[in-house]
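Lab manual, section 2.4: Encoding a predicted structure.

Procedure: take the sequence of the chain (254 residues), apply the prediction step described in section 2.3, and record the output as structure tokens. A sample record is shown.
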Amino acid sequence: MRYTSNTLLKVLELVSVEEERDILSKVISRIVNGKKTFIVTLNTVMLMMTVEDEDFKRYIESADIILPDGEGVILAKRFLFGERVKKIAGIEFAEKLVEESERRRWAIFLLGGEKGVAKGAAEELKKRYRGLNVVGTRDGYFSKAEEEEVIRDINDSGALLLFVGMGTPKQEKWISTNMEKINCRAFIGIGGALDVWAKRMKRAPKMMIDMKMEWLYRISRQPIRRLRYLKKLLKFLVYLTPLTMIKRKIRREV
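Recorded output:
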């Protein structure tokens, strides 16, 4: 339990408390200055995975920027650290990077999804962002033996930003393990965003997003994911409750 608590607190400390516009400005500045930037969009399930999987924890800790992309993460930041942060949805932040890429004429590469999904996503994005330069796409189903070829294709494309939609934990592992071999400057794991961009999957209705219930919409649409999410959520509450009580007691004594 002590290891679990320490892990939870350590990862939560790394989650950004800045406004979305400030984080975006920071990413843009790092790209302009040639600094590689690994961006993680952390939700509650991923937070609990850092407790259960030491390797995954290392991948998350290797990120340069961790966004609070989950109501559980936001609650934990508030109850354990007294920090009020706003949710930054990964897909929305990724779209802001796409907008900036169009405006600044930065080349991007889309990696992940089933065969044809990344290509479809590129086509749909270019309809919305007429000047967007998508210099390459590739599905996420390739073997270890093909990995060097994939990396070579990305490097040869001249892309500055790499959007990886392989799902968690695969995308975080892949980025963390391979980013030093890749010439891109910004790397972000985007989960199922490629399916949304390709119009193969819909996001939750705006009303549910505004009510902070997008997670409920997702699990209602994916029964297998539902069980996994609920298990992680229950475990999260088990860990969060005693930690919150301890923190409050310390604050009262101080």
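Check your result against the sample. The longest helix spans residues 223-253.
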